[in-house]
Design goal:
Strands 4-3-5-6 form a four-stranded mixed sheet. The protein has a two-stranded antiparallel sheet with strand order 1-2. Helices cover 44% and strands 8% of the residues. The protein folds into two domains: 264 residues, 2-methylcitrate dehydratase PrpD (Orthogonal Bundle), CATH 1.10.4100.10; 141 residues, 60s Ribosomal Protein L30, Chain: A (2-Layer Sandwich), CATH 3.30.1330. The radius of gyration is 22 Å and the shape is globular. The chain is an alpha+beta fold and 503 residues long. One of its GO terms (molecular function) is 2-methylcitrate dehydratase activity. This is 2-methylcitrate dehydratase. InterPro entries: 2-Methylcitrate_Dehydratase (IPR053420), MmgE/PrpD_sf (IPR036148), MmgE/PrpD_sf_1 (IPR042183), MmgE/PrpD_sf_2 (IPR042188), MmgE_PrpD (IPR005656), MmgE_PrpD_C (IPR045337), MmgE_PrpD_N (IPR045336). Monomer.
Length: 503
């Protein structure tokens, strides 16, 4: 890996294009290096993972709305597929529909470093273009490997949330780069596409703050859609604002820290295999990633409480000692009253560690639908317990959160539970059970089981089998429409009616 220093440059400064971060990203994307075997295998896992959560969210309103919008943009031939239905559609709209479906349940892969990310968001736009252009599985693998590589390394080097910019600002460039790799575009074309994609996908974090709406699911889908349009425009010979990160009026100077800040972004050197996907991790639970280990911790503590002959009704207070990110994003440090509101949206509840810890402690399990139902959130005993939970930042958890050592990096918490009689139970968990270093790391069988579980009653058995056979033969696949999944009639009937729009 090569560490690149990235800082604001004055317009009069000598700053050749080859030194622009967007150009260096384009060089990585255009590198014809072979994809490592373990990267290929993980790409298959993540396509399965995305399909799992996409079918599970089929009948949810934001997903249905995005799908109806895509259906208004059919094409006669060589189109992209939309999860759940037959037909061929314009690539950018298929990417929007599928990206929303993948993101809706907050249930696919994650990478956390200086910034947050869900690198699996790269797959819908890259796959949509591959289907639209009639490409094969080998080309798709190369594109996805690049998408993950660029997003993960931007996440390692540049914090967006610190300046209230949404994390999808790293996704637009990564998806554009991945599409560029897949289409064998030259460095100059990818450079323009990366710049345009960043310029059009930089937005504030309000989509994940306060009254969190359905846009939370659509924001990365929109970034993927913009990436496709950016590549299309660049292929036609059009340019983008430059230098997009380093310009005197660019992203670093006015949207991030200031012209004084220098960032360090690692990127593979020429000929180095793209392995960043192996640094990422998926979710066992449908919840914000920083809640994964605390949910598992709550399940474990439930057994301890029962062994001691106590119950959750005996609890006086619970304090979760955790990282800066967890405390301020999904904890009481966010100062969002909605995170304690039993009438809050699902999108808000899955960003409330207080709610999730309370439900997991009571139920000893977590379900992607049942754990968020209004009647579940509104139980009086749950609300009482929920409001006894607070979070505090612990410097050691923050240090481990930012550690570059994968054996030390952690996203967990220590729970201190005080009972009415003055007794205390303490327990902690650094990584979720499904994490590569956890108690039960996810392997291919776990991804398949997750797909089978979430597809039950939604996708017929024969269709499940067909998809799993196709995706596991990805490198030899010549018809990428086989990666689509059609839901059954019962699932289609569950989708809500959506009012008409412009299209």
């Amino acid at each position: 890996m090569i560490e690149h220093e990235v800082r604001t440059r004055k317009s009069a400064e000598d700053f050749p294009i080859e030194e622009h971060l967007a150009y260096k990203i384009a060089q990585v994307a255009a590198d014809p290096v072979e994809v490592p075997e373990d990267t290929k295998e993980m790409i298959i896992n993540r396509i399965i993972d995305n399909a799992s959560v996409a079918v599970a969210s089929y009948a949810r309103r934001p997903v249905t709305t995005a799908r109806v919008m895509a259906e208004a943009h059919p094409v006669q031939e060589n189109g992209a597929q939309v999860f759940g239905i037959d037909g061929a559609y314009s690539a950018e709209w298929a990417a929007f529909a599928n990206g929303t479906a993948v993101r809706e349940l907050d249930y696919h892969d994650t990478f956390l470093a200086a910034e947050y990310s869900h690198p699996g968001d790269n797959i819908p736009p890259i796959l949509a273009v591959a289907q639209h252009k009639g490409l094969d599985g080998k080309a798709l693998i190369r594109g996805i490997a690049t998408g993950y590589e660029i997003q993960v390394n931007l996440v390692k080097g540049i914090s967006l949330h610190e300046f209230k910019i949404d994390h999808v600002a790293h996704l637009g460039p990564s998806a554009a780069a991945g599409i560029g790799t897949m289409l064998d575009l030259d460095v100059d074309t990818i450079y323009q596409a990366v710049g345009q994609a960043l310029h059009t996908t930089t937005a504030t974090r309000q989509s994940r703050k306060g009254l969190i709406s359905s846009w939370k699911a659509s924001a990365p889908a929109f970034a993927g859609k913009m990436a496709i349009e950016a590549v299309d425009r660049a292929m036609r010979g059009e340019g983008a604002p430059a230098p997009i990160w380093e310009g005197e009026d660019g992203v670093i100077a006015w949207m991030l820290h200031s012209p004084e800040r220098t960032y360090t972004v690692p990127l593979p050197e020429p000929g180095e295999g793209k392995r960043a996907i192996l640094d990422t991790y998926t979710k066992e639970h449908s919840a914000e990633y920083q809640a994964q280990a605390p949910i598992d911790l709550a399940r474990r503590i439930k057994a301890t409480i029962e062994e001691e002959g106590k119950s959750t009704a005996d609890i006086e207070s619970i304090v979760l000692h955790t990282s800066h990110h967890t405390h301020y994003v999904i904890g009481t440090g966010a100062n969002d009253p909605q995170k304690m509101d039993p009438t809050a949206s699902r999108e808000t509840l899955d960003h409330s560690i207080m709610y999730m810890f309370a439900v997991a402690l009571e139920d000893g399990t977590w379900h992607h639908v049942d754990s968020y139902l209004p009647e579940r959130a509104g139980r009086p005993e749950t609300v009482e317990l929920w409001h006894k939970i607070s979070t505090v930042e612990d410097e050691e958890w923050t240090r481990r959160y930012h550690s570059t050592d994968p054996n030390e990096k952690a996203f967990g918490a220590k729970a201190v539970i005080t009972f009415n009689d003055g007794s205390v139970i303490e327990d902690e968990m650094a990584v979720a059970d499904a994490h590569p270093l956890g108690a039960r790391p996810f392997k291919r069988d776990n991804y398949i089981n997750k797909f089978r579980t979430l597809a039950e009653g939604i996708v017929d058995q024969a269709e499940q089998d067909r998809f799993l056979e196709a995706v596991q033969n990805l490198e030899n696949l010549t018809d990428l429409s086989e990666l689509n999944i059609v839901v059954n009639e019962a699932a289609r009937a569950e989708a809500p009616e959506i009012p008409g729009g412009i299209f």
